[in-house]
């Protein structure tokens, strides 16, 4: 797509840590755009935010980056699809800090109902001209033809247009007679299900100007149904089994029923006509008729209650009633035409009504989640003060209802109502149905209480630390009795920064143990120095032989394929005195070079003798690998290979190796045995979770921002 939404955050190594405030910035701007003072995040950039289809946050409750790296091979989809990976700085209350400073909101004029009775709801005449309805239609009362969409407006709002590339096989209603202010109005509404083809019609309703139902028909989709969307459509598999009516039958009937000067009325009618694969030249769209600023739209349910005083789409009913919705849209258009724009704006004041409704809803949700007894009484007697709202409240006020799904109380700080399920599978099923219909969703999966004991987490940490330490370590030898240790250190130092080098004396001939600071250096030593002559001896280079490293080769291969390392290469053998500017100049002729990362010691601030180069294209990275191996820079021969831990893992390894208190030392033998017993179960659970995320991810629309959070256990 020419204007597809994208996130730019191409960061390597030490830049891979962000705060909760920075994550808050990203989510707020993604969800709200420039409304409610939302600005572009300070640390990354979202391009074409207005094209964003939605935001989905997947929270893996009680899981941390320890789980991700311990079960790295099980998270096959997660590590190959999610391009950006960051460490979140610690927080005492993860969800509360993520959603901002949560405080209670006290509406100034909470409406008991939505019918305006107080003079406070009457718009001042000075404000009238600023209203989007007045700006669009003026104050003067007009006939219905003034409110039909122009051809340009239809194109802009994705209506099927005759001759458009995507409407080649669409059927015209052939209602091509000139419209007048006395042309008949017809309300139209469809219910759709999701099929392999996309949205297909399952029910069609048509009502005349008097509200009489002319058509209310079930329709059998042509393609295989993937999701009946029963909760919204009311359609079930059982209902469609005996149905013989096809889309072509409905198209024929509608053509016969509609007079040649018919004006169709509906709420977001473009979706209905697209699903019907029909073209109609004259339409009134009530979602655009009751205009709002910045492309926002009122929901049909809200307009029916605020304008007509009618309750539709009640939660007690299974799905929407298309006849009820078609009739409501028709009556809304008739009301607007009869009353005129000025009266609609001055007497209804829809924006204030919507704000009052949303704030009242937020307050009700808070009250529902409060414990019974004196706490509630205190809340009623002493209304809380208004302070900084979180952006979930802002979403509700703007008419967008966040979706919260989970086993735990996702809404620990009473953000809004949450839907609790009993298993991750149920949560997934609900998410597959509801996420496509929501602009902001929080989906929470969890392991279960038996897997969140602190000693189990500490045991996992110790296993990850031990395995990474072994992967950073190589043994080399045998050497002559009086070998030159300085020569050995120099030879192995060319592969990358060494953390420690010791001589092994337990063997008949001397060996050395080298622990590197980066995985690439250890791997490069194994690949380039095994069988080489070092300090006068032909040596063997290998990693420690432990049970944990039996799958080391598989892990190395998977790290190379990790999406975070795509187009990134590691270069070693640099002089420590070289600056980033020197290296930029040295590597400037390499094709498609995007960025350079020169690691440094966080404590001393000194540069290491290696760097990472990121290229725009993977092939350019491969070409650079061939070119760089054997290069000499300032008298030093360079060595390079594909990156293994260029981003998030690089920083995590460094922090783990340099943390003052090594976690896990206090783990008792019995507890480690208990961990071993449940690890097999955990592997299966992690694999299943990865599969759930894969299914959810594949169901998302293009241009959806998806974030997966490992909030940790404390």
Automatic annotation (TrEMBL):
CDD domains, alphabetized: REX1_like
Residue ranges occupied by any RRM domain in the UniProt entry: 472-546, 567-645
GO MF term (any one): RNA binding
GO cellular component: nucleus
Pfam families: RRM_1
UniProt KW Oxidoreductase keyword: no
InterPro entries for this protein: Nucleotide-bd_a/b_plait_sf, RBD_domain_sf, REX1-like_exo, REXO1/3/4-like, Ribonucl_H, RNaseH-like_sf, RNaseH_sf, RRM_dom
Keywords assigned: Exonuclease, Hydrolase, Nuclease, RNA-binding
This protein's name: REXO5 exonuclease
